[in-house]
Records
---
Amino acid sequence: MLGIEINNVDIREKNNNLKLNRFKFAEIVFVRPRGRDLTAILPSTVSEFTRVDSIKVLGVTFSRKSTVSQHASELLAACSQSLFALPTLRQHGLPADALRSILGNS
């Protein structure tokens, strides 16, 4: 079944004059958050794709157990880095109006 879908993607790729990067393809198997983990039992469906535990699509991280903990951790880390950077920039002499433009408060 999956082989048919991959062939359809190949046909659409050729018909629309696109070139897909096969190295960026990945396989993710979604399981219930509290269910048995069958991914060790299930063989990879397509040998050329690597199986991953989480994948980032349009800035949102999806995990195989359908939880948002990894996405929330990444967002909190990015926010804390930004909050650390602002006082550091101020200490190094960045003008107040430039700091406001970084924050988006023009």
---
Amino acid sequence: MHRTVEAELLDSLPPQAPAALRSRRDLGLINSVMGNRAWFRRVLPELTRPGERVLEIGAGDGGLARRLRPEVPHSDGLDLWPRPPDWPRTDRWHQEDVRQFRGWDAYAVVFGNLICHHFPDSTLAGLGAAIRRHARVFAASEPARGRRYQLLFSLLCPLIRAHEVTRHDGRASIAAGFADDELPRIMGFFSAGWTCRARTTPLGAYRLIALRP
């Protein structure tokens, strides 16, 4: 399967639209099945040094960062959506497009969950260049691309009673996902000499940790 990127329906919905709320509920279940939260909970404390600020790109409604607070107490968010009502006052919320963000110099650790697959290769190359200039660590969990993962997703949808938005976006996400060393190569980490660990889990998560040399 060649990587193809298409617009996802959730991105065009207002945050409080019923379909958006239902789809975010589905995404929470999918994240649990994929083990994304548990993975970030395990790796981020090991990667973060005392005093370093952490940034989640594509933070959505802030749900992942909230669940990570015991392990990563100070994590700022970056997303087009407005600042969540319960976002801590001590942490920053950047409501803007990640492609126009200019505050990278404040962050040594950058992570993202199910965000990189939204972008074409050219945008990911620019994002990688911006992160490499300032950050020390980049961690990402993305959809793995492949027919077996499309099949797994199609089997999961009836079990969680997935909304039609979720069904469309899930198929699109997997088609835009990654395999092998694609993501660090596209983002330029290899050419910059970073150490990269990329692996795919049996349940369809593509995991990347990139470390500055």
